[in-house]
Amino acid sequence: MKKIYGVLAGVLAMLAAVSFASAADPLTINGAGATFPYPLYSKWFYDYSNANPGVRFNYQSIGSGGGIKQITAGTVDFGATDAPMTEDGMKKLPGSILHIPTALGAVVPVYNLDGVPAGLKLTSDVLAGIYLGKITRWNDPKISELNKTVTMPNADIVVAHRSDGSGTTDIFTNYLTTVNTEWRAKVGRGPSVNWPVGIGGKGNEGVAGVVKQTPGAVGYVELAYAKQNKMKVALLRNKEGHFVAPTLEATSAAAAGMAKSMPEDFRVSLVDAPGKESWPISGLTWILVYKDQKDEARGKAMVQFLKWAIRDGQKMMAALDYAPLPKAVVEKVDKALKQISFKGKSLY
Amino acid sequence: MAARSGKNSRDLAFEKASAFFAFLVLFLAVLLFAVLLRESIPALRKFGAAFLVTGTWDPVLEKFGALPFIYGTLVSSFLAILIAVPLSVGAAIFIDEFAPKWLKTPVSFLAELLAAIPSVIYGLWGIFVLVPVLRDGVMKPVTKYLGWIPFFKGPVYGPSMLAAGVLLSIMIVPFILSVSREVLATVPQRQKEAVLSLGGTRWEMLRIVIGQHCIPGIFGATIIGLGRALGETMAVTMVIGNRPEALLSLFQPGYSMAAVIANEFTEAVGDVHLSSLVLIGLILFAMTFAVNLAAKWILTKMVARASRGI
Questions:
Q1: Whole-model pTM?
Q2: Peptide bond between residue B155 and the one before it cis (omega within 30 degrees of 0)
Q3: In chain B, which residues touch A (CB < 8 A)?
Q4: Measured between alpha carbons, how far is residue A46 from residues A39, A58, A67 in Å?
Q5: What is the rounded distance in angstroms from the CA atom of residue B182 to the CA atom of residue A308?
């Protein structure tokens, strides 16, 4: 019995030592939200904390909806989302909030079709037709006339989409809503929608699983996911009539095309962006922070980190298959960061 | 004095403590129900009882109905029971009555090991092995020749109600199997010997023994399997196709209640959407509760009849 008490006392002493140490420990910034930028953010947090041992990050990738809920409730220092907040959502906030764009992502159509190489040409109307269930066979004249050099097989199109609510679906349906009036009237946009046809897969890996396992399947996944899994990706005709391949450059080009008309609050959609080289299904991902910070030290650390993220942070994107923000956008974001303040004093 | 009354203070303390834990369990169940009910009030107000029979699920327009999910959960679970019960009971009889000793242990061990595999592994195996095999080996030939039967109508995609049912059946076999074996083991050896000594064959012996003794137990085992099938989430969502439509054909994709909650809960932004998902959870809760209650009732009747028969 005495032995047990001895051990217990030892453990307690150790716990006490640990908690004392943590009192002098680095500042921990808490965040929650989108899963799409999670690989990038964890790399950023790791590298930034190594260079600045005074700050640490704790990020929970619970989804964009969760991130918005948490920042609204004020349980985290920052939220992260793939879809900008709605007007209704912003009315519920206790203070005014900034959408800070951090990176760009692209959603790409992938397919599994024997005898048809990567680079199948599609237009917005054909893609919408397939997802509306109006184009049901691969040798439909609407597809064949775009791809005259390939013999399209006489096979059923199996449509795959995400079954879980996700920012990827939001960008994809936002694109279809923007370019196709019938889609807008019948389905609309959102992290989950009422799909007219198709089968649902859970996550990028679920959609990729359906596409890889089913001959004749078409689906949509994040660019990084398609690249890493060497899936066949389609070309899309963009707003200016050019067929473009989904690449990081084409994604950045979409943001550059929108830079001029970028609103001050950055709540903008990049789908169907102008520019010859722009990939049409691109989107921004944002970090949400309150303009008025309640804690000077934490607010300061947050601003310092964001300054770093839009400068040095942008350099490590390509390795992780995210597209960096174009220069014009970085300059705009930098200005916006000056609005973050503590009791009226800018923390920049 | 205390000793004479049969209750000393330690006994009393123990009794109170165990009673406390028993009520704690009860309290948790009530709390669970209460929270589900409270959170589903917005959806209940908006849709009312129509929620149960509406087939639309549109998060954009915020129109929700649970019919396809209730249908999918019931159909996939009953399909699983239909496949798993004969399989498990047959295997249990073989292991206990016919299998040579050297085979008994490894077969029963491996069958029970199936219960220890995480459901996400079943799901992955389902996507990469079961679904392609069912699609090319079962669904395609069957639609070709029997496609006129509504249950087997094409087109064939792969992920489907059938795939979910088959996968679930494999997952619940170990539960039904091990309970069935326990039930078979309760038959007195003398009774079996009595049938054999009267010149009965092994088949007759099993028929009489199982008919007399084991039906209630096997029914109980089936209910345990059904309970697990109704609530299974991960494996089902990976193979069922996640399409909110109640279709008669087993080859078409469907959806289940647990799957839609898991899929959409994290990104449900609208209040009505979130509340509708909680309401589906409440219905699932009520459904499993009703299944267990009905099973208990039937079981009591069966046991009463079985004991009268002897």
A1: 0.84
A2: yes
A3: 56-61, 127-128, 131-132, 135, 155, 157-159, 237-238, 241-244, 253, 255, 259, 262-269
A4: 11, 10, 20
A5: 65
Contact B157 A163 (CB under 8 A): no
Chain A residues touching residue B259 (CB < 8 angstroms): 163
Tell me what percent of the residues of chain B surpass a pLDDT of 70.
Answer: 96
What mean pLDDT comes out for the span B182-196?
A: 86
CB contacts < 8 A, A to B, total: 97
Q: Which uninterrupted H or E stretch holds A25?
A: none
Q: In A214-247, where does DSSP find H-type helix?
A: 223-228
Helix axes of B67-93 and B161-185: crossing angle, nearest 10 degrees: 40
Interface test with A, best of B67, B269, B272 (most A CBs within 10 A): B269
From CA B164, how far away is CA A99, in angstroms rounded? 42
DSSP label of B231: H
Token pair of A340 as six digits: 């973050």
CA distances from A219 to A211, A233, B109, B232 (A): 6, 10, 41, 26
pLDDT (tens digit per residue) in B79-114: 999 999 999 999 999 998 888 989 988 988 888 888
Report yes or no for ipTM above 0.90: no
Q: A284, A312 in Cβ contact below 8 A?
A: no
- pLDDT tens, residue by residue, A35-66: 888 989 999 999 999 999 989 999 998 888 88
Average pLDDT estimate for A240-251: 94
Whether the Cβ atoms of residue A282 and residue A104 lie closer than 8 Å to each other:
yes
Predicted confidence at residue A22, as pLDDT, reads: 47
Unique residue bearing structure tokens 């795959």: A160
Token pair belonging to A97:
């909030």
Q: What whole-number distance in Å separates Cα of residue A83 and Cα of residue A283?
A: 8
The residue type of A48 is Y
Q: Do A202 and B242 touch (CB under 8 A)?
A: yes
Contact A171, A191 (CB under 8 A): no
Contacts of B218 (CB under 8 A, 6+ apart): B85, B89, B176, B179, B180, B183, B210
